[in-house]
Here is the input.
Amino acid sequence: MQREGFIGGNAAIRVRAAGGVLLVAHLAFVAWFTLRPLDVPWVMPPNLTPFAGIRADLALGRPEAARRIAEGLALLAPLGVLLPTTHGRLWTSTLGSLIRTALAGALVSLGILLLQTGVPGRVPDVDSLLLNTAGVVLAHVAVVPVSRSWLRRHARRAVPQEEAAQGRTPTFPRVGIAP
Here is the structure.
């Protein structure tokens, strides 16, 4: 199973299953948090200009801007770790994994943005799409390459022990290829 690039064994199945359960739980929380109706006296117009909301947050002052930007980065950041965990590949391109995860995070954020157009009190903001995607990318870059490298080193040490336990592959010398 190691030659195919997946984490092998029962432990891998448990890790993937736990990652899948955590992924579904996180997406359910994000849906509840971002798609519940708000009771507000007025609604701001939608922000469709990239970085306009971030500039407005920075104009409010450093603590408020830092809080709002950190919220945007942190909302979908766990996807940067949970998506590769549910996939379970150890030997895969780092750049390919990053691109797949970033695109999946951007699509989830875009889906939330589109669903918010029909929720009372929620206003679509293109900056939230940018911040959410950046959060997914930052979490992926910070955690996934290091954890995959550690798991690869661990898997290389475990492979000779597994081969010794299994023994040699039996051969059948009299079996030929059919005409």
Observations:
- The chain has six helices and no strands.
- Residues 1-5 have pLDDT under 50 and may be disordered.
- The two ends are 32 Å apart (CA to CA).
